[in-house]
Amino acid sequence: MVIVYAFIDEYKHTFLLDKYLNNFPEDFKAKILKHRRWQDAQLSLLGRILLRYGLKKYYQINEIDIALTPNHKPFLKGQDIYFNISHSEKLVACIIADFPVGIDVEFLNEKINYMDFRSQMTLGELDEIHHANNKIKCLLKHWTRKEAIIKANGRGLQIPLQSFEFVNNECLIEDKKFYVKEIFIHENYTCHIASADINILNETVVFEEFFF
Fold it and tell me: DSSP of 74-87, one letter per residue?
């Protein structure tokens, strides 16, 4: 299991577009070029670059064909390799594994009001956040765990975030157990990975920062 990550850089944006954009299908290129903010364009492009890089270096997969499930989750056609991409603020991260997996990263933004998220949390989670010394960090711990689970499950927003709660980094969604693991990438970000495969708890994660 590997996590490849990168930080966006405005000064290298034109270079990034010139070097990599033409390597992708026309529909993806058009999607990137539609972004009004360079940050959004670069985060999306970097996610796909990280995926290609990670698959080639760690799994010896040079050609990829990405399709969507009925719930619009991207997957690799013809491969028993799974991936997920997340980005927040300046960080984008891509996880690749031998089993279905989800990842979520969030920037520790001190301007967040945790009460704005109360409809997405259980009463127990809200109570823990309310009494935490660092409410933002506690909020985003719960948020990234939930988002990673949702992405690993693959059904997206069909599963309300407040409908499940964690016990010892495990939770049940429709009688199926999911596991989450906290990952450290950078001190200004919170990150969790998740899967229905218990191996996610013990498998070694290879980290690599991608420089461009």
Answer: EEETT-S-EEEEEE
pTM of this prediction exceeds 0.90: yes
Tell me how many domains the chain contains: 1
CA 125 to each of CA 65, 140, 148, 166, 202: distance values in angstroms, whole numbers, following the listed order: 40, 11, 16, 9, 26
Answer yes or no: are the C-beta atoms of 72 and 156 closer than 8 Å.
yes
pLDDT digits (tens, 9 = 90+) for 80-99: 999 999 999 999 999 999 99
Element (H, E) at 33: helix 26-34
Residue 208 DSSP code = E
Per the structure, the complete domain to which residue 46 belongs is given by: 2-209
93 close to 176: Cβ distance less than 8 angstroms? no
Beta-carbon contacts of residue 11 (< 8 Å; ≥ 6 apart):
none
Give the pair of three-digit tokens for residue 21: 């954009």
Cβ(94)–Cβ(3) under 8 Å?
yes
Are the CB atoms for 90 and 7 separated by under 8 Å? yes
Residue 13: count of CB within 10 angstroms of its CB: 15
CB 19 within 8 A of CB 42: no
Give tens-digit pLDDT for 34-49: 999 999 999 999 999 9
| CATH number of the domain enclosing 13 | 3.90.470.20
